[in-house]
Amino acid sequence: MLSKMDIDIKLPNKKESIDKFYNNCEKRKKFISVDKDSYKKHLKKAKHDLYRAIKESEDGNAWDWTVIKAYYAIHHATNSLLIKKMGVFCKDHLCLIIALKHHELIKDELFKELTSLHESISDVLGLDLTFQLRKISQYDVNEWENITEKEALLIISIAKKIIVFVENA
Question: What's domain 13-168's architecture?
């Protein structure tokens, strides 16, 4: 359905660009200070969303909702990590990814493993494709039916890996 050419790449990959992007996120007040212990609630929510995504996938035809729920599992898990380590919640999906990279909260080994999951995933977390699929799933009444099982299961796989990583961080 989506190819690498269809995805608008928004994430920088060089340190200087990441820092600039991160600083812009800070200026736009995308980070909210929270109690570090609240990471547990986000991790619990991530696990719940992943469970629901898996249940949706078992229906065999709810790929749009599978993607949406797996996407939110990733969002809550990565925010859980940011909260646990930095004491901030990020309300912007792209700023969250940049914050994880900026603060070096995700190791290179995980970057490599996640990037090898699918050729069309362009950023180290696979969240750019996930974000695009989630937007289609929720808002595009013309394209939501074109989301494939392969794409939905890929997002579930990414969510599982990130949750395991966060649990062990």
Answer: Up-down Bundle (1.20)
